[in-house]
Design goal:
Radius of gyration: 20 Å
Distance between the termini: 40 Å
Order of helices and strands: HEEEHHHEEEHHHHH
Number of strands: 6
Number of domains: 2
Strand content: 5-15%
Shape: globular
Helix content: 40-55%
Strand order of the largest sheet: 3-4-6-5
Largest sheet: 4 strands, mixed
Number of helices: 9
């Protein structure tokens, strides 16, 4: 029965293989996760002043060691693992979002990478997303970078709008990050395609 599973390729990658049997089936419980080098997909970030501010003299080493993991869900954009600090990226978002949005999302996640490396919490389960200190810091940093590259407060306000926050939370996040809340016209929703 082992021939039905790609054991050789798993062993070649050094992944432990564990099967459980029951009800006439066998389930492989350890699935390999392939982490790819950040710099294979994102080049030149070591020269971005904001990224250098995050990591200082260690910038090139941090980015050389950093890994990314791609996922195919249409929900979500990017995230940072609180287990080992690698970045997770939605492939539909990577393919379809505007360049500036992907750029700012990477800067945002690199701020989370720094937080992880400093052993600071990334998630605050008892707080709303927009009130979590890790998110306020990362979005504030990202807004500053957005301004540096020439984005307006209106564009930044739209950038801050995500699928999982309410309009009131969106306005609160804008206030937390120093982005002016427009008086008119509904914000564009960032939609993962």
């Amino acid at each position: 029965m082992e021939g039905a599973f790609p054991l050789a390729s798993l062993r070649a990658e050094g992944s432990p293989v564990s099967f459980e049997s029951g009800h006439h089936v066998r389930i492989q419980r350890n699935a390999p996760i392939q982490l790819l080098p950040f710099r294979r997909f994102f080049r030149g970030f070591e020269k971005v002043p904001a990224v250098r501010e995050l990591f200082g003299a260690r910038t090139e080493q941090v980015l050389r060691d950093l890994r990314v993991e791609f996922f195919s869900s249409r929900f979500g954009y990017m995230g940072t693992s609180d287990v080992d600090g690698h970045i997770l990226i939605s492939t539909p978002h990577l393919r379809s979002a505007e360049f500036e949005v992907v750029y700012l999302d990477v800067v945002h996640e690199l701020c989370h990478v720094r937080q992880f490396r400093q052993k600071r919490p990334l998630f605050y389960p008892k707080l709303p997303y927009v009130d979590a200190p890790s998110e306020i810091e990362a979005y504030t940093f990202t807004v500053r970078e957005g301004r540096r590259i020439g984005m307006t407060d209106r564009q930044l306000f739209d950038y801050l709008n995500t699928q999982w926050i309410s309009p009131a939370e969106h306005r609160r996040l804008a206030r937390h990050t120093g982005v002016a809340v427009p008086r008119s016209k509904a914000p564009r929703r960032r939609v993962a395609r």
